[in-house]
Amino acid sequence: MIQFPTLEEALELHQNLIQHFGGTKGIRDPGLLESALFRPQTGYYKDLAQMAAALMESLLLNHPFVDGNKRTAFFLTDIFLRMNGWKIKIEPQVGYHFIKKNLTGAEVRLPQIDKWIRKHLRRLRSETVS
Known about the structure:
58% helix, two-stranded antiparallel ribbon, Four Helix Bundle (Hemerythrin (Met), subunit A), mainly alpha
């Protein structure tokens, strides 16, 4: 069963990112955040990578927070994937470059995000506890 981030988890992540990287705290439109979080749950998307791309695209386009929308979109998408046994494996500057160059304003497109996620998607190694 696929796990999805909750509204509370998204708000907590955003607050932590603002504290760590700086910016203005606050949610601009709670309804747009809820809409973005629900989109991958609609049953329309064929697999986890496409759901992750839909989540990231919605967070970027809906712009639910006062500040830190791109950071929150990236990290929440990675958390969503990790909740389900996958991760985005990249060097920090690669993620930063992708976000800054490709994920602003009207240029945000689901196929582009989906392709990028698939390129960097890796299965988490299961940790055995002895």
